[in-house]
Design goal:
The chain has 424 residues and is an alpha/beta fold. The chain is built from eight helices and 26 strands. The structure holds adenosine monophosphate and magnesium ion.
Length: 424
């Protein structure tokens, strides 16, 4: 593996002051997660409504899965003790069990006998193997077997999927297709899930207009509201859409106070820098919030503020749309997941190779929009890193497949360097 040019000393340097005053992205994530108080209220829902929600308790198998020994194939249930000496062997077809039949009622397979059997049918008594129908010759009521099969062949044993009492799903699982399948397979018609996380969304900026309105000079359309609505559209989230407010301290404070009474998390965009029109932090504090402005060694998205206002977690994202989206994906979404009681199975990431070199200044961990352009000889996706000044360019993320993660210490990325990748 080629090494990038790295130096430990290069992390967390603020390019404006030259000081190592920034905190690492991982530390910011930990701080955010530490602020979240997971939802504890539980609701019991029918299975269809529970899809996409967060499981409120461990789910143990209330009986063995599968519940009885059964056939894995269409074929014949036999006694392998009948296959002694040199083959071929012939057996008499003396019974039949299909899926859904009561296998016990079919009685035992006698010596020299075979039962016709189908996938999913219970194994009749005394049989100890199933031979696939493709591996026998059938003449009337007789089958001829030319190759021996071992005891246990083509049988799915009771409990081999999950023994009685086994942990099927841990509390905090996101209920997707596999999980709802497991819940259904143990016969539950309802399941306890955490109530939805309430996320209040507020965009700030006197320049913002709603799409559909006419722009006056100096105004732009509010895209963050829609970017975040899209990112927040999850079955386990209820969005309280507070629209946009102007950069007016009083209005902002009132809106934030209202939001804290309605939501578990307040997500805002804009107004968190240090400009005269950036009132967010001051107004949160005036409303009684405990807020920290984090200077994160992250590109894009250095000005991020987090804290609490009453019972709500506050996540103040930067105003630039790409920065707002990226900081939400990389930091905010993890805070929301924690607050919703969600436990991620495993991080969703990949390792890619840089398709070409790219210069940059070290100091901040960079989440660079990147596009997959092929596959390397080693089997890694090859990615083209897009423009390195991107935090206000929405077209760049539209053109990318995800973010290539460039470590804070890395000076320049060289062609062939391995990088972590976060899919969009
Ligand atoms: P701010 O963080 O408020 O200083 O905003 C940084 C930049 O992002 C400015 O150029 C804003 O005009 C822009 N911006 C802020 N909020 C939005 C928004 N909701 N939609 C689009 N651009 C925004
Ligand atoms: Mg602003």
């Amino acid at each position: 593996m080629k090494q990038s040019e790295t130096t430990e000393d290069l992390c967390c340097v603020d390019e404006r002051t030259g000081e190592r005053a920034l905190i690492r992205v991982d530390d910011a994530i930990q701080q955010g997660i530490g602020l979240a108080r997971p939802v504890s209220e539980v609701e019991n829902l029918g299975l269809v409504d529970a899809i996409g929600r967060v499981l409120a308790d461990d789910l143990h198998a209330p009986f063995a899965l599968p519940p009885f020994d059964n056939s894995a194939m269409d074929g014949y249930a036999i006694r392998t003790t009948d296959l002694v000496g040199a083959g071929p062997w012939s057996l008499t077809v003396a019974g039949r069990v299909a899926a859904g039949d009561n296998a016990e009622a079919a009685g035992p397979v006698g010596p020299g006998e075979a039962f016709r059997i189908f996938t999913g049918a219970g194994l009749p008594q005394s049989a100890d193997a199933v031979i696939m129908q493709e591996h026998v010759e059938r003449n009337g009521d007789t089958i001829i077997i030319r190759e021996a099969v071992s005891s246990g062949s083509c049988i799915r044993r009771q409990g081999e999927d999950a023994p009685n009492g086994a942990l099927l799903l841990p509390k905090g699982s996101l209920i997707g297709a596999p999980e709802i399948g497991a819940i259904a397979s143990v016969g539950l018609s309802q399941i306890g899930v955490f109530r939805k996380l309430r996320v209040a969304l507020l965009c700030t900026g006197s320049e913002l207009r709603q799409p559909g309105e006419t722009l006056a000079s100096g105004q732009i359309y509010n895209s963050n509201r829609f970017i975040l609505m899209a990112a927040l559209r999850q079955p386990w989230i209820d969005v309280v859409d507070l629209g946009a407010v102007k950069d007016e301290p009083e209005v902002l404070r009132e809106t934030l106070t209202r939001a804290s009474g309605q939501a578990d998390i307040i997500v805002t965009t804009g107004g968190v820098s240090v400009g005269e029109e950036d009132h967010m932090v001051a107004q949160l504090r005036a409303a009684g919030g405990k807020i920290r402005v984090l200077k994160i060694a992250m590109k894009p998205g250095k000005p991020l503020s987090m804290g609490r206002l009453d019972n709500a977690v506050f996540v103040g994202l930067p105003g630039n749309p790409v920065a707002a989206f990226t900081t939400w994906r990389i930091i905010g979404a993890k805070v929301a997941a924690k607050a919703a009681g969600l436990v991620e199975k495993s991080p969703r990431g990949a390792v890619v190779k840089a398709a070409e070199s790219s210069t940059r200044s070290a100091g901040r961990q960079e989440f660079r929009p990147a596009r997959i352009v092929g596959v390397s000889k080693s089997g890694h996706p090859r990615v083209k890193l897009l423009d390195n000044s991107f935090s206000a360019k929405i077209s760049l993320i539209c053109n990318s497949d995800g973010f290539a993660v460039i470590p804070a210490e890395t000076l320049n990325v060289r062609e062939g360097d391995h990088l972590d990748f976060v899919y969009l």
